[in-house]
Amino acid sequence: MEQGLGKASIRLKEPVDIIASASVVGTKEGQGPLGALFDIVGKEDHFGAKTWEEAESNLQKEALSEAMKKAGVQAEELRFLYAGDLLGQSIASSFGVSEFGIPLFGLYGACSTCGEALTLGALTIAGGFADMVACVTSSHFASAEREFRFPLEYGNQRPLSASWTVTGSGAFILKRSLDAEGSDGMSRRPRARICGMTVGKIVDYGLKDSMNMGACMAPAAASTLLQHFADWGCGPESYDHIVTGDLGSVGRQALLDILSKKGIDLSEKHLDCGMLIYDAETQDVHAGGSGCGCCAATLSAYLLKQLEEGFWKRILFLPTGALLSKTSYNEGKTVPAICHAIVLEGIGK
Amino acid sequence: MEQGLGKASIRLKEPVDIIASASVVGTKEGQGPLGALFDIVGKEDHFGAKTWEEAESNLQKEALSEAMKKAGVQAEELRFLYAGDLLGQSIASSFGVSEFGIPLFGLYGACSTCGEALTLGALTIAGGFADMVACVTSSHFASAEREFRFPLEYGNQRPLSASWTVTGSGAFILKRSLDAEGSDGMSRRPRARICGMTVGKIVDYGLKDSMNMGACMAPAAASTLLQHFADWGCGPESYDHIVTGDLGSVGRQALLDILSKKGIDLSEKHLDCGMLIYDAETQDVHAGGSGCGCCAATLSAYLLKQLEEGFWKRILFLPTGALLSKTSYNEGKTVPAICHAIVLEGIGK
Hints:
- 2 copies of one chain form a homodimer.
- By secondary structure, the first copy, chain A, is α/β, with parallel strands linked by helices.
- In chain A, 34% of the residues lie in helices and 22% in strands.
- In chain A, strands 1, 2, 3, 4, 5, 7, 8, 9, 10, 12 and 15 form an 11-stranded mixed β-sheet that branches. In chain A, strands 6-11 form a two-stranded parallel sheet.
- In chain A, strand 3, helix 3 and strand 4 (104-106) form a beta-alpha-beta unit.
- The mean pLDDT of chain A is 94.
């Protein structure tokens, strides 16, 4: 009965379709290499709000609205919503998705939350408990700086290992695959299919530097990736690309180093959403982008597009999250991390 | 294929067993009416830690360890863990469950998180993706006061509508029902069975008083309860008791009033974990107990015991959560709320 493989992995008997998605980003992301691909680029980063937190809520609201519009669905048709963000008590989500009135599962996996949402959403559909659900996650540079680091007005200097929290949100509409029950009269081709996942565990190498989250998260990415390869009996050759969420350049090197010691060369296959979304040379982001919105917006705008258009056939999407808070940081605790893996396949042109 | 009823409800074809559970609480809870029923009562509220946040992590650690011990299972046998708490970025959970090494879904639903965890854990099993999972949630009076209100040292006066955050944690081991696949040689009788659920949506009546969370949460409890009655085609008569999480005495009255206007008299059937766990007359808790640990510890120690021993046959468990943060409060935002409903049945003596 169990559709599982190893302890941490599930291969879905019936893949779940991502029928539509949307990305909304801020000005800096709009000026980056993926700028032209995002659905909505804010003219300024307040998104019509008076506070940064409300601005982030508006990001989620716009992303989910746009994804629903593309899918041609109303809120009443979405059985469940899986949402999360980086702020304390996930207020960006609570105030962002409230008015849709969709039964809600609030999630917290730091910047890995997009992977957690896609996993739980897909499992709910694959288990037969829903026909269609939505997932949305977000982050905002200014609300995250206030939440985790310093007020913007303080103008602190950031080390080169620091990442830049992406102002952005990605929303995804998941639906039971047409293959499973035959045509329902909907002619829309899905953007991609979720074929399975490997759920991450917390990995803590004892690092304490919140200005080097790439290094804190790389061991979690390596752990989930190795677990995935073991559970599925596969390796890097099984994927066109293996795409981490927000390791940045420092975390990427740490990941490659850890895997190299296991005899795995990931240098050719690896991409990182945090490195894709900004131009590190010209955009002053240091190690790269980060945040719940980083991998979500990049997945919607770029990764799914590559799958949809047939440039890639199969990728492993690995959102990474650093499970710290300002309280844990100030109390001298480590920065534990987590990473979830999602197997995504295109359905060809 | 869908096992659902109405939009927000699911009736499981194969109920999921709660095979074991454990509760760990602080000194004040140990002195309350349920004191003798908790598995572990701390001698003092630090639980061996130097900080309140770490104390709360230790609550989760002890609760999960104790539940695993009762079930006779090792961490490796638990396929997934669903965990959450009230603190920013859920650090009580991250630092509490890290060492178990179980693939983790971090959840945030404020004080409703126990209901969210039981829902997602049960769906994962019912969907065929796991044989056994664990759920754990916690709260701690001192870490919550620091997180949401004032430092303890400030000694602020609390209005009578305020609740007292429970220092406690409840952990639950969920397993595929023996009925589903025949005996597996395990002679243990489950404590109760999860038969279905109604997933809550965010309800916001525009209230802003964080010292009256019962009133903020009562509309969410009413919304989920009415949705449940509509979806399942049932009413209060279908349950021995309908047990909200932490409305307290003020929230209880608000709930009874809202339902009374709909022609439903819940006064006889209704219980509230926040009112069960303390003696309001002698323990200076004002409206009652609250927090992620309130309903979790009460469910494990008292509600499941009543079901297990055959005093009750069927209850509706309704954990309630207020989705505020100190940032949203300080920015003048409302206190939105959410409530999830779980149908629990005893299996008779």
